[in-house]
Amino acid sequence: MLMLVVAFGAHALVSHDLSQWAHGMTGELQMQMHSHYVQLLLAKLGAMQPHSLEAISAVAFGFAMLLATEGIGLWLEKRWAEYLTVGVTASLLPVELYELWLHATAMKLVVLCANAAVVGYLVVVLHRERRP
Description:
- By secondary structure, the chain is an all-alpha fold.
- The protein folds into 2 domains: 1-76; 78-132.
- It contains 6 helices and no strands.
């Protein structure tokens, strides 16, 4: 559901001036305008182009549909959904490796190891529970 909110939210903001919208939101959320993080957020949003929002919307919508398909397949106890779960979970490993490569931190290493362990566990369980 969160991915759908992101997808529709990004799509709704395509025709808006993001800088003006963000300044309005900081007031509504009672954020401190002089905060370093708020200034970074405003700068990033002000520089964002409509085509970037369209891409964010499309990717978020696609990911939401993939997760919905996976969830429904698992609910219906379909074998293909189990393989899809392994694939989706494993697909995050290259991104985590890249992030670790860019700026290594202990937390990134822990997350990478945890996700690799989850993928390994899922593969072992799939292999053990082979159905004819």
